Amino acid sequence: MDIGNLTNSYLDAYKTQTQSADKLNGQLKADYSQATDEELMDACKQFEAYFVEQMFKEMMKTIPESETSSSYTSNLMSYYKDNMVQEIASASTEQEGLGLAQMLYEQMKRNYGL
Hints:
Elements (H helix, E strand, L loop, with lengths): L2 H26 L8 H24 L10 H25 L4 H13 L2
């Protein structure tokens, strides 16, 4: 196993994660008064996915971790767990979700007069 390739793939994944966080941050600061229904619902679904992701991460903190792994392995496992949780949260929001996105969407439509 080549450590250099693992490190490069880890850094590439980190850059992708950072870009996605920056994109979401830009969308959160956007003015939705001129947004279409689709853009508004997309923003609401992204917020719900973020909320679900944070909830899953907090739930995972209650599970005891194995102390037999090295710090490098632990860091990689943590990274992949975070990605897995993020994907599960996004997938759950796209399917049925908690209904939070729909409530936010309706409230934002009322607030923006759309």
